[in-house]
Amino acid sequence: MELLSGGDMLVRALQDEGVDLIFGYPGGSALHIYDAIFRQKGIKHVLVRHEQGATHAADGYARATGKPGVVLVTSGPGATNAITGIATAYMDSIPMVVISGQVPSDKIGEDAFQETDMVGCSRPIVKHSFLVKSAEEIPAVVKKAFYIASTGRPGPVVIDVPKDVTNPADRFPYEYPEKLRMRSYTPAGKGHTGQIRKALALLLSARRPVIYAGGGVVQGDGAELLTELAQALNYPVTNTLMGLGAYPGSDRRFLGMLGMHGTFEANTAMHHADVIFAIGARFDDRVTNTPGKFCPGAKIIHVDVDPASISKTIVADIPIVGTVQSVLRDMLDMLRESGEQPDQSAIVDWWRQIDDWRERHGIYTAPRYRTDGALIMPQEVITAVHEITGGDAFVTSDVGQHQMFAAQYYRFDKPRRWINSGGLGTMGFGLPAALGVKIAHPDSEVICVTGEGSIQMCIQELSTATQYHLPVKILCLNNQALGMVKQWQEMQYEGRLSNSVYEESLPDFVKLAEAYGHLGMKIERREELRDKLAEAFAIKDRTVFIDVYVDPSEHVYPMQVMPNGSMRDMWLSKTERT
Amino acid sequence: MRRIISVLMENEPGALSRVVGLFSQRGYNIETLTVAPTEDETLSRLTMVTIGDDHKIEQITKNLNKLIDVVKLVDLTEGSHIERELLLVKVRASGAQRDEVKRSVDIFRGQIVDVTSNMYTVQVAGTSDKLDAFLQALGEHTIMEVVRSGVSGIARGEKVLSI
């Protein structure tokens, strides 16, 4: 059998796992591993500018491909800098394996240079973690880490590797395990047939049904099956922020996003529904508004791969634990076998009601923002970009108003196209995530929709884009303030704008982009918006920073009324309430 | 409601911290906690007493099951079960008090396991309620130090928690 050092074993195990890309940043404790990377060919390593960027880039890669993202960082600050990105992946159930260097085993606990208890620091934000005790363990640990990260409800797994374990002087026989058995981990597979049958019967008896689909449908590759089911039944579908793309955004059955900034028709339909089919969604507080007032007349079917997500905040009438794919497939088979159909007249009435809601306040039936002013409206920027890119781009985003505008107005038709930090709400996610997506899909248009606040949280990654020639578009909806914070302050704090405005301190983003070797473009006048955007999107071989000055006073609507509001209680504009 | 949850988990470093961490992270209570290896040295058995309504207990058991190190668990309070806790208590005992303490120990079927001229160390095993009652019987003034093991439990009958 071949003898390898721990460092070489680690890299070989990654190769044997099918990894061809790592995002990382070297440092003392990881140097043996970095040397092993230098001496091999199969894996490409992307050097980021900050470890947070590495985790977000790997995360973007994972969301766009479905494969686990891989990160390599050193101990201490390298590890702690990765924490935000690990938490981001954890909250959105993204498969990721993070390898962190650690001080040598005999120094652990001595407050050694660049020592931090990574397993401890990351414990509440990982699916699992390993501290490697000897080189011989490495192949099995790597195998387990990838298995855990990518099965069941996916999530990040940390492998903490003390430096002595990777010592090039100590060599051990290497064999990558073919099979894996873990007595303590059995991810959910197929759903219970009886429960699925009951769910289908309830669904068919519905008079006011809504399908509420979340990120699990995207992550679990269930979008096609979901679309088939919704179309077979002719039922309305709403997606969560994480689920956008799980159902085609341009289909007439799509109600738009639901929740805090969901559409009027989606939230109102949910409120009046008699049966809600929740799949791959977790009744997040940004979806349900006040749990006690959530959908008072609805019976709830809840499909999720994670039993702990079921009946956590909203009690399910019919819980089904299983993968999205298997449950949907079983349900479609049963539907076909039974030949049953819902009550057509009830569904026609329901659609008539929904169409009326759409007509009254829907954001897709008429612009619900100002269209006659001199200032550029953020909504029309996203709408224009949607048109120019044919709705087919990969769109990453940061966090804030721009994120909501992108979610509302870039109507995603396909899964894995909308990549944002929904659960943790991490500013700084967008740019590094876009780089990860671009590496996965070099021939596709990749846009980072951002704001002048968020972009500055990981702006250093502009340099990574230069080094690896990653021509993404950065679309900055610049309102010279922390827009969402400001919106809340205006709505709930009588306009006291505590620390949410930049007061002439913003950099010249055009020059900044140029300093990194990219192209910068500033758009300020409404009449030049479309032409300039078209010009920017015609450039395919350079990173373009498009700094669009938008109306700084604009708010995101609809916005659910808080606290104590129900799903249907919304602000529709600054003055109009349901 | 008070529940006794018994967990079989991998006897690995860090496993206990994951369980304890879960409780603090999600705001669950731990009243008592005991843990020791089992006859199979790759497994530890952890028993905890927690308080919560049915919804909370369901979430606790689901989230415990989600931990990769947890192999199996049971809520012992769902069925009939035996629970025991061990109490060691140092009691002031001099003069007339000595007989008084000894009588209480006998009533509660405890044992005096250490003696000096001024004190007894008493060992009592039983349910938590029984130990509470014994301490109450002794009275605050005589008690010098108390140590309790936390609850261990096992199901009655042929039901076993094993892999």
From TrEMBL, chain A:
<dbReference type="InterPro" id="IPR012000">
    <property type="entry name" value="Thiamin_PyroP_enz_cen_dom"/>
</dbReference>
<keyword id="KW-0100">Branched-chain amino acid biosynthesis</keyword>
<dbReference type="GO" id="GO:0009099">
    <property type="term" value="P:L-valine biosynthetic process"/>
</dbReference>
<keyword id="KW-0028">Amino-acid biosynthesis</keyword>
<dbReference type="GO" id="GO:0003984">
    <property type="term" value="F:acetolactate synthase activity"/>
</dbReference>
<keyword id="KW-0285">Flavoprotein</keyword>
<dbReference type="InterPro" id="IPR012846">
    <property type="entry name" value="Acetolactate_synth_lsu"/>
</dbReference>
<dbReference type="InterPro" id="IPR012001">
    <property type="entry name" value="Thiamin_PyroP_enz_TPP-bd_dom"/>
</dbReference>
<comment type="similarity">
    <text>Belongs to the TPP enzyme family.</text>
</comment>
<dbReference type="GO" id="GO:0050660">
    <property type="term" value="F:flavin adenine dinucleotide binding"/>
</dbReference>
<comment type="pathway">
    <text>Amino-acid biosynthesis; L-valine biosynthesis; L-valine from pyruvate: step 1/4.</text>
</comment>
<dbReference type="GO" id="GO:0000287">
    <property type="term" value="F:magnesium ion binding"/>
</dbReference>
<dbReference type="InterPro" id="IPR029035">
    <property type="entry name" value="DHS-like_NAD/FAD-binding_dom"/>
</dbReference>
<dbReference type="GO" id="GO:0005948">
    <property type="term" value="C:acetolactate synthase complex"/>
</dbReference>
<dbReference type="Pfam" id="PF02776">
    <property type="entry name" value="TPP_enzyme_N"/>
</dbReference>
<dbReference type="GO" id="GO:0009097">
    <property type="term" value="P:isoleucine biosynthetic process"/>
</dbReference>
<dbReference type="Pfam" id="PF02775">
    <property type="entry name" value="TPP_enzyme_C"/>
</dbReference>
<feature type="domain" description="Thiamine pyrophosphate enzyme TPP-binding">
    <location>
        <begin position="398"/>
        <end position="548"/>
    </location>
</feature>
<feature type="domain" description="Thiamine pyrophosphate enzyme central">
    <location>
        <begin position="196"/>
        <end position="330"/>
    </location>
</feature>
<dbReference type="InterPro" id="IPR011766">
    <property type="entry name" value="TPP_enzyme_TPP-bd"/>
</dbReference>
<feature type="domain" description="Thiamine pyrophosphate enzyme N-terminal TPP-binding">
    <location>
        <begin position="5"/>
        <end position="117"/>
    </location>
</feature>
<dbReference type="InterPro" id="IPR045229">
    <property type="entry name" value="TPP_enz"/>
</dbReference>
From TrEMBL, chain B:
<dbReference type="InterPro" id="IPR045865">
    <property type="entry name" value="ACT-like_dom_sf"/>
</dbReference>
<feature type="domain" description="ACT">
    <location>
        <begin position="4"/>
        <end position="78"/>
    </location>
</feature>
<comment type="pathway">
    <text>Amino-acid biosynthesis; L-isoleucine biosynthesis; L-isoleucine from 2-oxobutanoate: step 1/4.</text>
</comment>
<dbReference type="GO" id="GO:1990610">
    <property type="term" value="F:acetolactate synthase regulator activity"/>
</dbReference>
<comment type="similarity">
    <text>Belongs to the acetolactate synthase small subunit family.</text>
</comment>
<comment type="subunit">
    <text>Dimer of large and small chains.</text>
</comment>
<comment type="function">
    <text>Catalyzes the conversion of 2 pyruvate molecules into acetolactate in the first common step of the biosynthetic pathway of the branched-amino acids such as leucine, isoleucine, and valine.</text>
</comment>
<dbReference type="GO" id="GO:0003984">
    <property type="term" value="F:acetolactate synthase activity"/>
</dbReference>
<dbReference type="InterPro" id="IPR039557">
    <property type="entry name" value="AHAS_ACT"/>
</dbReference>
<keyword id="KW-0808">Transferase</keyword>
<protein>
    <recommendedName>
        <fullName>Acetolactate synthase small subunit</fullName>
        <ecNumber>2.2.1.6</ecNumber>
    </recommendedName>
</protein>
<keyword id="KW-0100">Branched-chain amino acid biosynthesis</keyword>
<dbReference type="InterPro" id="IPR027271">
    <property type="entry name" value="Acetolactate_synth/TF_NikR_C"/>
</dbReference>
<dbReference type="InterPro" id="IPR002912">
    <property type="entry name" value="ACT_dom"/>
</dbReference>
<dbReference type="InterPro" id="IPR004789">
    <property type="entry name" value="Acetalactate_synth_ssu"/>
</dbReference>
<dbReference type="InterPro" id="IPR054480">
    <property type="entry name" value="AHAS_small-like_ACT"/>
</dbReference>
<dbReference type="InterPro" id="IPR019455">
    <property type="entry name" value="Acetolactate_synth_ssu_C"/>
</dbReference>
<dbReference type="GO" id="GO:0009099">
    <property type="term" value="P:L-valine biosynthetic process"/>
</dbReference>
<dbReference type="Pfam" id="PF22629">
    <property type="entry name" value="ACT_AHAS_ss"/>
</dbReference>
<dbReference type="GO" id="GO:0009097">
    <property type="term" value="P:isoleucine biosynthetic process"/>
</dbReference>
<comment type="pathway">
    <text>Amino-acid biosynthesis; L-valine biosynthesis; L-valine from pyruvate: step 1/4.</text>
</comment>
<dbReference type="Pfam" id="PF10369">
    <property type="entry name" value="ALS_ss_C"/>
</dbReference>
